[in-house]
From TrEMBL:
The keyword Coiled coil applies. Keywords: Coiled coil. InterPro entries: IS1182_transpos, Tnp_DDE_dom, Transposase_InsH_N. Residues 190-224 form a coiled coil. It comes from the Bacteria. Residues 347-460 form the Transposase DDE domain. The lineage of its organism: Bacteria, Bacillati, Bacillota, Negativicutes, Selenomonadales. Transmembrane segments: none annotated. This is Transposase. Residues 20-113 form the Transposase InsH N-terminal domain.
């Protein structure tokens, strides 16, 4: 007798009381949430292809079923269309969800390709649902960016230096092949020839073609700084712990109450500068509120964005970048110079006055002192032969107000990290979405939206529970 656990089930035995698919799916199974959520959306209004089928021609797959399939795939970490095709033929949950449909991988891939730009509307629909359920605080949001690897190998990303090295290599190779052809023609004994003439000619042709290709790519690099051969929109970025890699910069705005993502965008610029205002406005419009407080790190600190935020009733609490010092002496950074608004001048740490010497300067007002040349501390203050210079830009006032606001709200600002970095950590570590499968920034935006939607969905399930969420959706 076997000592292993067994229920003695015969694979060939026919059950007299067969179970339905619905009986095999528990009441709190997340697949029921996906089903209820998609059924609550009017896909025709959102513009999904075949949402209203034509009366003639071949019948299409219902876009609702295809959307459920994709949501299920991303929810369970299955992004490949071929793997989804396999799951449709063996996965009981999917059989229940899309009612036994078995689309092939081409149909699955085409659905994503045709509707990729509309996925943001699905994300927005769920965010509004979270708002209706009272899960959003609608008072404080935090904004941050994180790098996600693109579908482009690093060796397929070319810079000017790389191309010049490759051109030198192929030009030398072409020169060697030409010399080899000449030597081959001069030799009478064919047995002493290492390569046949036809082989050398083919190698020469390949090298010449490669030179032409690299020369054309070099022109693109001179315009854009770099070229990615597989995904033309991807750029080389410093991805922190991963080092430099070809990636995209994913921007998110996260509501402080339950750490739910309410706005997402993708850029191919490694810097976050210029993203504070567009991300804050996107979140504010979704929440449909008059005023909102935004937390962001020093990478978002730009005068232009801060001014626009003030104009739109966005209270920005943003840390300031450290002021540079040409001499490395922190006693003489620009913050150590006091501004006298009544006399429109600056007073240096040594008590000397820097007067406004500018005349219609586009950068702003320029302040200098006549005593700099004879000052004993000049070497500690500046490397400029003309003496210390301070530029007061046109955004100085709004930046000063932002600095004061930060100083008065440091306790609130310290919450920024745990609010906005928590979702990125979950998406990358728990969900495993560290890279993109699609190519091109528009398609990547759709994929990033799916990552964030899956995070939000799992977050809400953890907060409310599956049964309660299903009831709320219905």
């Amino acid at each position: 007798m076997s000592r292993y656990i067994s229920n003695n089930t015969d694979r060939n035995q026919v059950n007299l009381i067969p179970m339905s698919l619905d009986e095999m799916i528990s009441e709190d199974n997340p697949v029921r949430i996906l089903d209820a959520f998609v059924d609550s959306i009017n896909l025709n209004e959102l513009g999904f292809k075949y949402a209203t089928p034509k009366m003639t021609g071949r019948k299409p797959y219902n876009p609702a079923a295809m959307l459920k399939l994709y949501l299920y795939g991303y929810f369970n970490g299955i992004r490949s269309s071929r793997k989804l095709e396999t799951e449709c033929n063996r996965n009981i949950e999917l059989m229940w969800l899309i009612q036994g449909l078995r689309p092939d991988y081409r149909t699955i891939a085409d659905f994503r390709k045709d509707n990729i730009s509309l996925l943001k509307n699905i994300f927005k629909h769920f965010s509004l649902l979270c708002n209706d359920l009272g899960l959003l605080g609608k008072e404080i949001i935090a904004i941050d960016g994180s790098k996600f690897r693109a579908n482009n190998a690093r060796k397929k990303n070319l810079t000017k230096g790389k191309i010049e090295k490759m051109l030198v290599y192929f030009e030398q190779a072409a020169k060697c092949y030409l010399e080899l052809l000449e030597n081959t023609d001069d030799k009478d004994d064919k047995n002493s020839v290492t390569y046949r003439k036809e082989e050398v000619q083919q190698k020469l042709a390949n090298a010449t073609q490669r030179i032409h290709e690299l020369t054309a790519i070099k022109q693109q690099v001179e315009e854009n700084g770099e070229v990615s051969l597989t995904d033309k929109d991807a750029r080389l970025m410093n991805a922190n712990n991963m080092g430099f890699d070809v990636a995209y910069n994913v921007q998110t705005a996260v509501d402080a109450k339950n750490h739910i993502i309410i706005a997402v965008d993708v850029i191919n610029n490694p810097a976050d500068q210029g993203q504070l205002y567009p991300m804050a406005v996107q979140a504010k419009q979704l929440l449909n509120i008059e005023e909102i407080t935004v937390l962001a790190d020093k990478g978002y600190y730009t005068g232009q964005c801060l001014e626009k935020c003030e104009q739109e009733n966005i209270v920005a609490i943003v840390s300031k970048q450290k002021s540079p010092s040409s001499t490395g002496n922190s006693d003489y950074i620009v913050e150590k110079f006091k501004y006298d608004a009544d006399n429109d001048c600056y007073i240096c740490p040594q008590g000397e006055i820097l007067y406004n010497v500018s005349r219609n300067n586009k950068k702003g007002k320029i302040y200098r002192s006549k005593t700099c040349k004879t000052c004993l501390h000049k070497a500690e203050c500046t490397n400029n032969q003309r003496g210390r210079q301070i530029i007061r830009g046109k955004f100085h006032e709004v930046m000063a107000r932002t600095d004061e606001r930060l100083a008065n709200n440091m306790k609130l600002y310290k919450q920024r990290q745990m609010i906005v970095e928590h979702p990125f950590g979950t998406i990358k570590r728990a969900l495993g979405y560290t890279h993109f499968l699609l190519r091109g920034i528009e398609k990547v935006k759709g994929e990033a939206v799916m990552h964030c939607l899956m995070y939000n969905l799992k977050r809400v399930i953890n907060i409310m529970g599956a049964k309660q969420l299903i009831a709320a959706i219905k």
